[in-house]
Here is the input.
Amino acid sequence: MAPHQHRITVRYGETDQMGFAHHANYMLYLEEARTALMAASGMPYGELEARGIGLPVRKADLRYRAPARFEDVLAVGVWIERIGPASITFAYRIDRPADGVHIASATMELASIDLESGALRPLPDDLRASLERTRGTD
Amino acid sequence: MAPHQHRITVRYGETDQMGFAHHANYMLYLEEARTALMAASGMPYGELEARGIGLPVRKADLRYRAPARFEDVLAVGVWIERIGPASITFAYRIDRPADGVHIASATMELASIDLESGALRPLPDDLRASLERTRGTD
Amino acid sequence: MAPHQHRITVRYGETDQMGFAHHANYMLYLEEARTALMAASGMPYGELEARGIGLPVRKADLRYRAPARFEDVLAVGVWIERIGPASITFAYRIDRPADGVHIASATMELASIDLESGALRPLPDDLRASLERTRGTD
Amino acid sequence: MAPHQHRITVRYGETDQMGFAHHANYMLYLEEARTALMAASGMPYGELEARGIGLPVRKADLRYRAPARFEDVLAVGVWIERIGPASITFAYRIDRPADGVHIASATMELASIDLESGALRPLPDDLRASLERTRGTD
Here is the structure.
């Protein structure tokens, strides 16, 4: 499938004294792209929480390949790698279109939990269907 | 009264490309000091929320006098300036003990709200009493 | 003058357990809007630093009027309130277009410093001219 | 070797609307612990940068096992897993001493670079020696 494309611009407060976008902030970039993907799939994350389901991150693997800097416009591609009974794995690739540099790659596994009890809870069928449609055929 | 003293150390991820602790992070330092003051007064903020009361910030005035840098140990003094019917005003002063430099000053007014409805809600008597004790006689 | 308008969307990681966009993050929203204003004026902040000049925040006054929440799209209006010999004061107003709620207001005074020495340094004439043009006639 | 132990307390601004310490902030906790380990080894990270060497993160793998919450005191254990010619791999384990819950584990690989050119640069011998001593015999 084609990844969902999202643009972010590095904020000054996200840089560190090395002059790089600090590595922790990439998680916010990935999250913003994932949120946009879910909204585009017809299942905004906020709606999911309103139904009592949360998707906390369980596993995050990031590879930083080249530094990003203040005011860099980054293209964050995000797609669904795997849908489990009570989990979703997203994959990401961050590029800087201005010079074509590959900035970072990542995968993140989110667990589906009941917000009340904190226990694992299978993904609701309509969310699964929305995500499967978004996923398309690989 | 003597301010409650709290120490924080500037994290790398809190610096910006100017090499300064980014100004937004001072709000986290002030918050951490305020949280420590409340815990010391016998009324931890978390307990307040458990009772259905939140203290969102309504007003924040900060003066940055000298930059702080990575690994700087900062002394954050915090005291209560005013207790209103449904608000508390905290005052702060940040110094760097290593060289005695005055880093910043601030005041923040927090509203007391009902977490359920979001409406203003008078401070409970026991919290007010705890804070008044903490405040002492000026 | 008409404020420069900038849009931001509240990220999940910017919320706090009260369910509000945490007050410290507003400083990043204001900064992003200010950066966009400077870029639009023909004097991107990054270029200024490349010329050895920094604009650290010296004074920040924020008024939080209504909470913003996850995925809220906020309109951040920013304009120049005053240009001093070695300082610029920006004013801001944040609204939520979806329901017309006024979220926050702020002013921030930035000092113009020499990045090498840290000392105050008068604003360069071309920056001043760019900003004056942006400012227009009130 | 025994991990270097570091304590952090979850800040309010680090929670998200799920009521958990947001996953991005763990990177700041790990960084703070790593910084403390380096300082304890006699080679503070700031000194390294003063010598023109930076250690940006190249690879980060995190496993979130149980949520941490506001005001939780977390014990972050950090140790050196591997020292390469121009890289160091740190391993981490975060526990919550109050109830013995294992919160998270992580490994992070940092590259050693020349801050001027951005190119890989072998770790200086004295840093390597400091770290090897810290590492001890496994």
